[in-house]
Design goal:
The protein has helices at about 10-20, 105-110, 115, 165-175. It is mostly helical. It is found in: Periplasm.
Length: about 180
């Protein structure tokens, strides 16, 4: 024998009616509210993305900026903070750095640096994670581009007001 079970909406309506609520589906059209004002202080976020798109709306095609050129001055740059990895002051196009070869070490290895007039890699590159010195460069320091980067003539996409610690200390002494 089969027993008929009422559908879920009928059960909910009956439960609400027994609880004293008057609920019935409305047949009238819902009222449409006017669109809310933009949330962002910069404008409508669906139209204005940010400085990375040069304030061009997302639905407009923008021509790309020209490719930046790598600076090739072979001049050591200052560092902004202690322990900052030095930047690469020359082009590294075509350099092979993989499991079998590291082109950077041709010039920057401790044995070859004087011959090529290149700075030697730091002794920290020859240390393992237990601070034990190794005969060859450490595997955790082998892939140079994890920390060191070339410099280009590109203009910054976003504002940067970074001031290094030496400049901050000089300002503090003057005040």
């Amino acid at each position: 024998m089969r027993i008929a079970v009422p559908s879920l909406p009928i059960l909910l309506s009956a439960a609400l009616l027994l609880a004293g609520c008057d609920w019935a589906p409305s047949k009238s059209e819902p009222e449409l509210a006017p669109p809310s004002p933009p949330i962002s202080a910069r404008g409508n976020p669906s139209r204005d993305i940010d400085g990375l798109r040069r304030h061009v709306p997302i639905d407009v095609e923008v021509s790309p900026l020209p490719m930046a050129r790598v600076e090739n001055f072979d001049v050591r740059r200052g560092r902004a903070y202690p322990m900052q990895p030095p930047t690469i002051p020359h082009s590294i196009d075509g350099y092979q750095v993989d499991l079998n070869s590291n082109r950077c070490m041709l010039c920057h290895a401790r044995a070859n640096a004087p011959q090529f007039q290149a700075p030697e890699v730091s002794v920290t590159h020859y240390m393992d994670r237990d601070d034990q010195f190794l005969a060859t460069i450490s595997a955790r320091r082998y892939f140079c581009l994890q920390c060191h980067v070339t410099q280009t003539d590109a203009q910054p996409l976003v504002a940067n007001e970074f001031v290094d610690i030496d400049t901050l200390l000089q300002r503090e002494r003057r005040e």
